[in-house]
Records
---
Amino acid sequence: MSIKIAPSILSADFCNLEQEIRRIRTADWVHVDVMDGAFVPNITIGVPVVKSIRRHTDMFLDVHLMIDKPLRYVEAFCKAGADLLSIHLEADHPTRIAEALKVMEAHGVKKAVALRPITSPEAILPYIDQLDMVLVMTVEPGFGGQAFMTRQLDTIARVREIIDAHNPACDLEVDGGINPVTARQVVEAGANVLVAGSSVYGAPDVELAIQALRG
Ligand code: DX5
Ligand code: ZN
């Protein structure tokens, strides 16, 4: 499976998003972090910003919803132009997680579930057959620039086993503390989509930083 790089615009200059997205054009996806100040302590951006980004880029929009009860907003993010939505398994009751996935399916948007570090890999089992991606957090969600949690390598390896057994076409994305060193470790453990905020936008040469993550 080829490696995809998804720079997180959380570390970009929000006043110059069009230009900031142009700087990462050699990457594969744009990772958009939506935070509601409830599921996580931080507040970032919402539907109108995703809509504006969509008008200015053809890149694949990978939208990470760190919000409580995501079913309330999934349709709006689909209509705003997301290509893929990740919803957190901890953010609602399983029946409403399943319902949110159905809404994405109906809009032709790719479907992913995300796991906080505390969540067991087996939690993806009820959904795995229909997923396009599983997102394993390698930091506690909420902020960019945190240190990679090494113990999440075991979670990545277990999620890779589940994917290979049930739905081998499903992508495995990791998010948090990814730099050229941890990138090698997560790929070794089975990840194939790498989110990186500070190690891309904080680098003197963004293109080189993206290349370094590819290994
Ligand atoms: C954290 C976000 C990440 C964040 C990663 O809650 O989901 O996408 O931007 O930032 P870095 O790569 O700096 O850890
Ligand atoms: Zn993210």
---
Amino acid sequence: MTTPALLPLSGRRIPTLSPGASSFPHHRATLRLSEKFILLLILSAFITLCFGAFFFLPDNSKHKRFDLGLEDVLIPHIDTPKEGKHASGQVIIHGQGGHDEHRHREEEESLRDKIRADHERALQEAKEKLRKSREELKAEIQTEKNKVMEDLKKKDVGPKPLPPVPMPKVVGVSDGEPPEPDVKEKRDKIREMMKHAWDSYRQYGWGHNELKPIAKKGHSTNIFGSSQLGATIVDAVDTLYIMGLHEEFKDGQEWIEQNLDFSVNAEVSVFEVNIRFIGGLLAAYYLSGQEVFKLKAVQLAEKLLPAFNTPTGIPWAMVNLKSGVGRNWGWASAGSSILAEFGTLHMEFVHLTYLTGNPAYYQKVMHIRKLLAKMDRPNGLYPNYLNPRTGRWGQHHTSVGGLGDSFYEYLLKAWLMSDKTDTEARKTYDDAIEAIERHLVRKSNGGLTFIGEWKNGHLERKMGHLACFAGGMFALGADGSPDDKAGHYLQLGAEIAHTCHESYDRTVLKLGPEAFKFDSGLEAVAVRQNEKYYILRPEVIETYWYMWRFTHDPKYRQWGWEAVQAIDKYCRVSGGFSGVKDVYSSNPTYDDVQQSFFLAETLKYLYLLFSSDDLLPLENWVFNTEAHPLPVLHLGNITLPGSEPAQR
Ligand code: DMJ
């Protein structure tokens, strides 16, 4: 192997090996052709070997070597280690001649040892892995994944400090004990029902969205996607607080603190999550002053914002909490968003801007309001469907029940919540209600006032259970209505309350059906089998409570008590409370769902109906559409960030 070393290594010199043309000794120039060929072969073998050695060395050793070379060439010789410190922690000392060569050889040696050791370790690990069962490997992978997720979570949702803002006036958050012993007894009964509903959920459905009280296990519906977000806990904690169920409240708070996590791959309803979760968390925050509720509300709100990324700024009905991708319900007219859904965000979003200082929430809802204000309204009515891509109405269907209801409610409540300074909201409400009264409100032959549904120029004489909330809304909006019509609206509220009570009273179970007709001699009764169910809904009781607060007419407490008795008799089971499939049957079957709104709304309104008026006074509190009380924000004294002209 010494011969090649004696030859010039530069390839350029080889052709000069022709006779007489070189400075090489003569005898070498006269080499025979076969000898030359052999030499050439040896030379190319040597070159191949060098390249091979370079390419077949493991990557890290090549690079180290290369680095060393570069450093030796490019880095000026300095005494201090500075950047010259290698990963090993050893300081490289550059440029020391023969001593360097020796040192390099040693380094190469140790590098090779290290590579060998690495390979052996990798081989060993691979062998061990192969010995493991599929399950063990799966478990290992899962543990790794969990660790990565945990680390991500820590980085992702670390509590962001929120700006300090003055706490709005919160008064009358508990107690409200009625002076009359019989009323107190009734109130205690309602509190006991709440405890039964909560305890059953605690025992059989804890952490699930809702409860199946017959099967005694967790339940969920498509409004929560595939999530398991403890909807009942979040929806119920403020009711627990108001009722003075402190242990249960603490338990709920702890679950929220430790388990409520919105980084989930689930497609949820923006509206439902807003009214139940954000509304519930904000109310729990204002009532109890516990920061955790505020932080969770803000974390969730951020996840809803991508739903507004549409060509018009009208949000999608659903959003994936993880990806932020939104879409609309498949059943909605021509890909439309729903009036009652995108129109029921204002209260919560104004509070979010107030608490966070982030103008985005306020601007989003104000943008919706401005866009609606510019649109033509057939007969002054708002259709229930609006396409978020084109900004055009879908089917001309208007209702004060499902699909439309809380849009009107939030116009009125935006005004009330702003301490009556948001006069634009009040005017929009007044105009909308006037059109509704003209086109949708009718009196039946039997003298019952009802609110029908407008479908493409035709009035359907059918009223939904959901529309019964409007009795309370008319009463709540009476004060401040134009042309001194306060008395008129209070009266309209009373008439709706009466009609809805009739819809309960004309059943076997004394519980109201989902929808009832005023047609062909029928009055306030359901006709179709699939409209005869009662799913623990609150709207009729909500109206009784508002009417009670404004009139103190004892009939409202009496009607409320009838409902308590019927619910306790026909809906109570050992595992909680269930809806029933037919209120006209003396032997009804259960639907086996304890809805979260039963705890958030139905039981809360019943409890308030039998409490004194100083519990959550209406001058200071405005209830969102899921019965979560939010304090009045005296916006006259506060400038909300973003309250300058709205933009998207
Ligand atoms: C509740 O979730 C809310 O009241 C909503 O506005 C419509 N109805 C359900 C309960 O019936």
